[in-house]
Predict the structure.
Amino acid sequence: MNGIVLSVSRSIARVTGAALGPYQTAVVRIGFAATWLLFLLRELPHRHELYGPDGPWGHDLAEQLIADNGAFTVLMWSDGRAWFEIVYAVAVLSSVLLLLGWRTRTMSVLFMVGVLSLQNRSVFMGDGGDNVVHLMSIYLVLTRCGQVWSLDARRARRAAAARARGERVVDRVGPVLWSALGFGLVAVTSAGLLDGDWFVPALLWAVWISLGLWWVVGRGPEGGQPRILLDVVTHVVHNGALVVIMAEACLIYATAGWYKIQGSRWQDGTAVYYPLNLDYFTPWPALSDALA
């Protein structure tokens, strides 16, 4: 009995004492940011037809659908070409900065906003891969995915070295960025632009408030009780999101494989043959022909 209690205590301490899987979450961050960035750059010449004002799924049709499903997209705030270009540019920029790991938490929020805004604007343009990016963009907000292989990690190491030398470290960029985004969040909330589904607006406010609280507490002593409490909460949220990411990946591929092997078209090769003869799935035609 004592062994079970000790094991449970160690597990709780492990979950609450550290943000697990730093390299794994960094791989997820870099992988999905790079995937979305390459997609945005590849479709740059066709962006207006896919998600913008020139698309077959017009602004009025998107408004009717979003009025029913409550999906979040800032592209519904205006149907102007200039607003679309701004949103697309922010989506590209946030993907680059998330890939590099600069102000990772803030960039993960802007990355999520960009993904949701473009995909929910034209929901029929996506496929299963886009759905995965859609979900992972939300999960990434909850993770500490910039612990390694990021500009944030390099800045943290330099700050620690400066403090060890007795130097005073002041972060000016963080408060300015927090204030600017907070002003925008207050403005769009006051204008009623976040009405609809409650989840994304609640997540945006929760992250903004938590970042402000983290900055205030971080100015206090390193081992203070508020700092310890925030560390525990952050670790639990990160580790919980990491479990969800792993479960999501297992569920997606396990169920997809299970349903496929039960189908006659997969068993006789038909379901593989036809995609191998489509230009979209044949980056190396010779290899595709040999497999087909």
About this structure: The mean pLDDT is 91. Residues 112 and 138 are 6 Å apart (CA to CA). DSSP finds 14 helices and no strands in the chain. The chain has one domain: 18-261.
